[in-house]
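As the next step, I wrote out a protein sequence along with its fold in token form, included below for the reader:
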Amino acid sequence: MTPEFMRQMWCEKPGQLEVRERSIFEVGDDDVLIKIAYTGICPWDLRAFSGKSSSVAFPRVMGHESSGYVAAFGQKVEHLTVGQPVVADFIIKCGICPACRRGRPNRCQRPTYQQYGGGYADYILIPQQNIYPLQPGTNMQAAAFMEPLACVVRGQDLLQLYPGEVEVVVGLGPIGLMHMQVAQRHGARVIAADLIPARLEKAKALGADWTINSKEADLGVFVKEVTDGWGADAGVIAVGSARLV
């Protein structure tokens, strides 16, 4: 049974958070009410909270890397059951602009955003078209990474790597490590580069073909050495440095 009230964590302005209580969302015919299990902290959330993104309007509820369980749904919603694990896309695409009609919804020209705020809350209300069901027993903490993983998968698909080719991944935070693993699923071999020893150890544990601390060795020379002078077939920059891009 859903409660009458819920909590949301509002960012009043950069650097200031406040937990507010409100009545539970009213579920429309096409809506799905999700009880949040986990919500990740995206670099976008950090930039907004730090006041480094001038386009962000405050106050707002942030968070969009969420997993959860269906708590209730509207009369027109099909193929979902209460308690079912799901993830959601928090950006609602128009479905009719040229980008959407060409199968490129990531470039939707008229997107709208969840009007009730983000995933830093007990519950969130999302249109059924933006809900993705998961298998029972799914690790919900891992499922909260579905949104960034989807970005990684799309990027790796665009690279069109062949088995045996070599990709360099620079930056071994969560996104870089996901790029490494997805590239390997495509059959590629991966050179994983970072400046932080603990991240290099994590990359080794996850199966990196080569690791290099680019503060201690020349990355370009290393790439040529392990590829017999051929060089890398693709590269991913997963660090926040405009200089590297």
User: Anything to note?
Assistant: The mean pLDDT is 93. The first strand starts at residue 5 and ends at 13. The radius of gyration is 21 Å.
